[in-house]
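Co-fold these.
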Amino acid sequence: MPAAQAPAPQPHPPQAEAWDDHRIEVILGNLLRTGVLLSAAVVFAGGCIYLSRHAHEPANYRVFRGEPSDYRTIPGVIQSVMRGRGRGLIQLGLLLLIATPIARVAFSIVGFAIERDRLYVAFTLIVLAILLFSLLGSGMGV
Amino acid sequence: MTVLEFTAIVAIVSFVAGLLGSLTGLGGGVVLVPLLTILFHVDIRYAIGASLVSVIATSSGAAAAYVKEGFSNIRIGMFLEIATTAGALLGAFLATRIPTSALAIIFGAVLLYSAYLSRKPRPLDQRSLPPDPLATRLRLNGTFPDLEGKRSYNVQHVPTGFSLMFGAGALSGLLGIGSGAVKVLAMDQAMRIPFKVSTTTSNFMIGVTAAASAGVYLSRGYVDPGLAMPVMLGVLAGSLLGSRILVKAETKSLRLVFSLVILVLGLQMLYKGLWGKI
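Predicted complex below.
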């Protein structure tokens, strides 16, 4: 571990270190906001299409049926978007939403690597591995 | 009720839940699932799926505003996310194997516990705790802006906090909530992180935790687009507004109101679960 990475003596004087962390956080915060606003826009557009077609049908969520595969898997969602379905577009927006924090974690690896903080690069890789295992292991890709 | 009426009412309720959840740091999901199941008679599995995606939106949407204030601690967040994401994965797999009445009972218990915790006086921010060797090694200690300039803090009891966060993640995955209350408990009470740091850092972590279980929920068909749309958009708008007024707001009276709401919803969920009405 390089000397600059040694734990700071207490009470904590170095300003530069705090600044680097803060700058990474600002970038990550903006990344998250952009991702969320983008996904919200897609969900909103999908919602408008869905409501314009189904506004006067009765709403019923009392009975759980589970979603059809069109709305459960990534290929299914993409296909239903291609067919111009509002609900497919909503699911696409939700997929973007799920991807946003995953992108944040992936980007954090770069941030910690720039700071040469190997310990936190390792921690972040563990978190990313768990996230990817959840997505791929749950059968959403098929 | 038609789809249009249902969408509009759910969006308004979600907006209020997002606003209160953001202001109190307790999260909107914790009230959303009971509201959807009790008021709108939504099947609890659809409610959990919609709540979970709204939790991601809340967390990620508010992050930029929180970060600017300089309260959140990215290292505490990333370190504890190892525990919360592993827990969330376990919770999501359990959720698909547990009967809905049991889910309602667990949910009710969590709500009652959250209400109790939010009424307990939180420990005063202690100014001169000694540095903990493990926390120092993990570089968890930090500073945050205060009236008198920058204030530094030393994180305590790392293993206890880490274990509690695994539990918080499991509950998040099981119930589709942010588990804000357990997180604030772990970070405020065990790790002695100053309140504003723990609130904003836990907000940052909630989205990552929820993303770990969202894949499981989506692939099992728990996320209905027609329901998730008004919930996600409503909660997002509410929480964005809430994060703008967080720094100025007096959280004490707000927490009282919100914890009463949580108490009532908790009793309702227990009743419904125990009598098999869900």
